[in-house]
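Record pair follows.
FIRST:
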Amino acid sequence: MLDKNSWLLFGILLIYPLIHGLSILTDGGTLREFDRPSKVIMGAAVLLFCLRNPPRFKWLMTGIATGAITAGGRALYDRLVTGYGRAFEWMVPIQGGDISMTLGLISLCGVMWSIKTANRGLTVYFAAASAFGVLGSILSGSRGGWVLFPVILFVLYRIFRDWFSPKVKLGMSLALTLLVIFCLTPQSGVPKRIEAAKSDISLYFSGKNKNTSLGHRFEIWKSSVDSFLEKPLFGWGRHGVRLSQEQQYKRGLITKEAYDFNSHAHNQFLDEMAKRGIIGLGALLALLLIPLYLFKQYLKPSFAPEVRTLAAGGVIVVLSTIDYSLSQAFLYHSSGIVFYCVSVIFLYSALRSQQLMTDKSLL
């Protein structure tokens, strides 16, 4: 039997793909275009299964940590052995780096739990996983994953601040200092990516070159906003938006390179606005904010450490996805939509199971 919160999550996992399906249908699209939204429907089925067969807390958290170590290890291999300029260059570096970052941040929640429960062995393992996960993002050069990183760290501090002893605070400050020092080294690739970003911004706003990496993003963001303003309610659809872009190009409002980029807006929110209007944007926000609302309810100090840890992990998944979606259509890729849905479902079903066990033990 689903409770109110589970029904909320189950409902949005059906509504989001329904909105996309209607958009595809009215836009004259093909069944193949429903491939990505259909994965969210799969998520609804997985949710029902996991609510009946929830993952165990330690298995889930150590599994996530193992994923973070694997991602960071692969990133090191890509940079040091294969000689790739960016980690995960064999796939989409942005997606690989962003997923690695999320795994590392959830592992950081595991560090907090293991310190609270005095589990020293797992503290070391989760700490290593956190470092490897963040390292994977750094080595991928995915700048979008760094935008809200300080904000997310601050949110984690606020969630777990009552668990911190002076010794823990000192250790975290030292770890953060070492991370900053590493990011400032040329080997990390971060200074080079920051300088490139500064150069792209300068060239774009001076009008000297609009076809840089960030300049290209600015152009398609501007295009998406203009398309949305023309059809704000239902949007243009995936194919229809090309007509809007063609009109913009002919009027000299966007560059030819921006017009030729027939994919997405490099911003999940603007992409939804242009293609599916306010209706699509509302469905996207619900897919993000409903899980955030559900997880936030379990962050109070009165809940068991395991429950708060899982809830914090869920909050991190949502906030980091919002972060990535500001400069990349993260959910446009199969890797992004599957990772987001599965992460939310696993963490929520484990959290609900853990809370039910806690309630029974108090009876």
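SECOND:
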Amino acid sequence: MTSEFPLIEPTWHIAHQTAHTVAAALHSRRVPVADGVGQVLATDVRSLIDLPYDTTSAMDGWAVGGSQGPWRVVDGAALAGHVSQVTLTPKDAVLIATGGVVPSGTFGVIRREFTEVFGDGADSFVRATHESEPFANSHVRPCGDEARRDEILVPAGTRLSPAHTALAAMAGHDTLEVRCAASCEILVLGDEVLRSGIPRSGQVRDAFEPQFAAYAALLGLEVSGFRFIPDTLEATTQALATSSARVVISTGGTAAGPKDFLHTALETVGAQMVIDSIAMRPGHPNLLARRGDQFFVGLPGNPLSASLGGMLTLVRPLACGLLGMELPELTSALTSTSIKAPAHDTRLVPVTSQNRSGTFFVTELPWLNSGMMRGLANADAVAVIPPGGVGEREVVEVLALAW
């Protein structure tokens, strides 16, 4: 297995960055704006209009032409969906609805509950009943107050929320350009893996099927298959050779044990190694390889090692790169107690975080053996502990979870 520059046991930071930069963004497609939620933007969403397009009223009430009343009521109510042809003088008032285009000459809008109408017919008048209104441009939404035409509203690389698609529609968009989904297949290697029921001696209950398909979907990958593969070189090679997914995630077989065949199988199918193990705990024997535009991510067989070393360190940044998204950002916090780490390896530690008067502190959780999941299940973030560990109240980098 060859590569121009295979990384043999890089640092965690280098592996995390490499998994992002090695992936070229996928092609894009155009979808109706209502189908954009959860998709990743391929191009900026710019406002096609001044938003709002007109100067409108923020209240039901009366548009008045001057600061001092009473004001004579004139015909030509300014209702939503209609443009009033009225031009107000300082002593005129016209009925206006929320969203109605403000007539020419308007000084401000008085909300309905702060007005009183008196007189009759052509001699009807409005007066203010509260001293706070009107004031200049009271309850008036200026044209372009939210955005100007061609202003960027949502940048490319953003995963779209319902609020994003609503904003895009308000700005005049019927469709959006989004990244194509990256297909993903997950292969669980190992004869000892039990999919259901109570495991017996020599067996382990599968921890990957219940989490990794959903995990991959959270990262924007489209899971096309989930296969359990026997512990043989032939079966492992066949599984890799027959997968057409853009990202193939496998669990187990990454080390150098008597039944670890992944390296040989990858070489057989013509994959080039990009990363071969990482100087980190847990999850040291992770790997990343590629064959053309197809990526293979080999995760260890232990659940916590696979979740932190593989999914968090390699799959997440790889998915971000394929979707044109930025590398997940590291933030910082203070440790509430000292946290140990090996002398030469970065340690990823599931933590809970607490805001104490504006400063975030993280606390290491128990149950962090590489075969355990209880610590991660109770965590709200992962601390990246440098080799040698840190003391109490030291600054550490923190990576948010994908859920």
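COMMENT: The helical segments are 12-21, 162-170, 209-218, 233-242, 262-268, 303-322, 374-377.
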